Amino acid sequence: MPEKISIMNPREKQVYTWFLVVVLVLFCLATYISRFNPLEVLWEQGEFWKFLFQDFLPPRFNASPVVVESILVTFALAVSSSFVAAVFAFLFAVFGSTSLSPWKGLARTIRGFATFLRNIPTLVWAFILFSSLGIGTGVGFIALLISTFAFMTRAFIEVIDEVSCDAMEGLTACGGTFWQKVCQGIVPTCLTQFIAWFLYCIELNIRASTIVGMVGGGGISGWCCFPISSRLIMPARQELFWLLRRWSLWWNF
Fold it and tell me: Residue 129: pLDDT above 90?
């Protein structure tokens, strides 16, 4: 009888097996701590399908002008914030790239600053800005701008760092200045990836602007989710405003 040849290394197979066991244990531990029962998803399917086909479908296409205007506002917030953020992100990225920036300390500072801003969700920025600037599309735009700027800065820095050193060394050998390296080396090489990240951020901001609109940032969510906002989000917003006020008083003290 011919001997079986193992396709996978036994040691590698053992590592994968232990990895799956650890993931399964962590999943069970997380469901126990959060008191989430995965079987409830199967038990409540009837209510889900009832909602889907009775309350959600079929859609009504006789939308009022207010709904159409709210949809356009949501889309405009996503596009405008992405465009402005892309301009500022590019300027910060060329100085934040360790392979391009003439000041390495400034590059590390920009990276850390962008990382800090990126780790704060857009909804939190909206809550913080609402406490000082009020409610409106302007606040929603600024909240989207901050988070998108941070995300695109980090993405653009990584794209610039991946550029081959040969192009930069060639421009340096020819006596090229910093901005000549940017315009003649970075932009032609990275333009396609810059556009791809820009379009991806527009897609993300359409979703984010919808979430920001639920708490007063303007757009379609402010019109559709007004009952939910009145019952659930308004108390949470008041609690956050109170905490921010206490923090500002403590800081001034």
Answer: no
Q: Give the DSSP letter of residue 183.
A: I
Are 88 and 142 within 8 A, CB to CB?
no
Q: Distances in Å between the alpha carbon of 35 and those of 27, 28, 29, 47, 223?
A: 12, 10, 10, 21, 33
For 125, the token pair is 């920025």
- In this prediction, residue 24 has a pLDDT band, given cuts at 50, 70 and 90, of very high
Residue 85 confidence (pLDDT) above 50: yes
| Angle between helical axes of 137-161 and 122-133 (0-180°, round to 10) | 140
User: Is cis: bond before 235, omega within 30 of 0?
Assistant: no
Cα separation, 246 vs 253, whole angstroms: 11
What is the pLDDT at residue 204? Answer: 86
In whole angstroms, give the CA distance from residue 134 to residue 209: 17
Amino acid found at 40? E
More confident residue, 233 or 217: 217
Q: Residue 72, CB half-sphere, CA atoms under 13 Å: how many?
A: 7
Distance CA 218, CA 237 (A): 16
Taking a C-beta distance cutoff of 8 angstroms, is the pair 149, 61 a contact?
no
pLDDT of residue 22: 94
